[in-house]
Amino acid sequence: MVAALVASTALDRLAERCGAGQPWILVQTEELGTIKEQQPFDAVSFDPHFSEHLVHNGRLA
Description:
Number of domains: 1
Structural class: alpha+beta
């Protein structure tokens, strides 16, 4: 199984694509190694598009 980290490069894109109620944290790209140590992932997907049916109550379900 492949694990991907989903990342947005701007808050407006996050809200537009995942819903305005989507929780978020600010992470500098230099910190991705530390995150990967704690929660391993194989790839990073920047600013992905999701089908509308995956967003419920302002959040990605």
